[in-house]
Amino acid sequence: MLIDTHAHVNFQAFSADRNEVVKRTLAAGCWLINVGSNFATSTRAVEMAGEHPSGVFAAIGLHPGHLEEGTIDEAEADVRSSEEKFDPKNYRVLAGNKKVVAIGETGLDYYRLSEKYKPIEEIKDKQKKVFSEHLELAKELDLPLILHCRGSKENPTDAYEEMLQILEKSGEVRGVIHCFGGNFRQASRFIELGFYVGFTGIITFPKTEELKNIAKSLPLDKILIETDCPYLAPEPYRGKRNEPLYVEWVARKIAELKNISYEEVAEITSKTAKKLFKIG
Length: 280
Hints:
This protein has helices at 18-27, 39-50, 88-94, 120-141, 158-169, 184-192, 209-217, 247-258, 262-277; strands at residues 2-7, 30-35, 56-60, 70-73, 78-81, 100-109, 145-150, 175-177, 195-199, 223-225. By secondary structure, it is of the alpha/beta class. It has a single domain (2-277), classed as TIM Barrel (Alpha-Beta Barrel), CATH 3.20.20.140. It is globular.
């Protein structure tokens, strides 16, 4: 089996056929975790999980890009956002559903900051504050975290450094750093802090040698696989809408990089996902 640990079938890109997408995903023996990026998509993720007795789960949280009005860039798609406040009480209610398996996605995103409305440092401070509030909620509810992190255009690893500093002071938390884009030292530090490292179809793209080397070097039992669909479709689907079944290509690339069987990657990453999210 396979588990796509970070999907967004709850997003508008799947509004016309989300039931069909989920149906064929489950029929192929693949499970998925739908991840919320704001309260509306978190609610939809919970509702979708409730429609399926097994194999579909939800994570709830507020993406840092939704803290300000503007555009969230996801490499192959532009998503408009309006400013939204994080209200732990509302998310606490959502988390009462047994199909909620994580808090997130939450974190820091410095890639497309603009001083159009506020100074950049003020925006960063707000992201850090809300991120810390998610950490406290995860600790309170004893749920793992799904972390989003993206550095600035000038320094792709800066947000990772600041996120690690926050986590080092936060006490015991666990989870996954989703769609990892930092360096090997940072990946190793996340693992030391109790996190797994998530890889998407980006590792199938040309000119991502550093990321491929990180995936090759990390222990297999510290890796999770994900699509981040509808974004970041792997080769050979690049440029098209991604979907959970395409997580197979992430697993196959990791197997190739590590010179092991696809079956071993599928087995170990699924086992890891079940352990972290307490599913199965």
